[in-house]
Amino acid sequence: MAVAGFEGESNFEPRNGIEFESHEAAYSFYQEYAKSMGFTTSIKNSRRSKKSKEFIDAKFACSRYGVTPESDSGSSRRSSVKKTDCKASMHVKRRADGKWIIHEFIKEHNHELLPALAYHFRINRNLAEKNNIDILHVVSERTRKTYVEMSRQSGGCHNAGFSRDVDNQFDKGRHLSLDEGDAQVLLEYFKRIKKENPRFFYAIDLNEEQRLRNLFWVDAKGRDDYVYFNDAVSFDMFYVNMNDKLPFAPFVGVNHHCQPILLGCAFIADESKSTFLWLMKTWLRAMGGQAPKVIISDQNKFLKTAIEEILPNTRHCFALWNILEKIPETLAHVIKQHENFVSKFHKCVFKSWTDEQFDMRWWKMVTRFELQDDEWFRSLYEDRKRWVPTYMGDTFLAGMSTTQRSESMNSFFDKYIHKKITLKEFVKQYGNILQNRYEEEAIADFDTWHKQPALKSPSPWEKQMSTVYTHTIFKKFQVEVLGVVGCHPKKSSEDGTIVTYKVQDCEKEEDFMVTWNELKSEVSCFCRLFEYKGFLCRHAMIVLQICGRSSIPPHYILKRWTKDAKSRLLISEGAEWLQTRVQRYNDLCKRAIELSEEGSLSDENYNIVFRALVDGLKNCVNVNNSSNNVLECSSHVQGLREAEEINQGSLATKSNKKKNTIRKRKVGTGTKVQSEQDILLVEAQESLQQMDESHLRQTQLHGNAPRHP
Question: What's the domain of life for this entry (predicted)?
Answer without folding.
Answer: Eukaryota
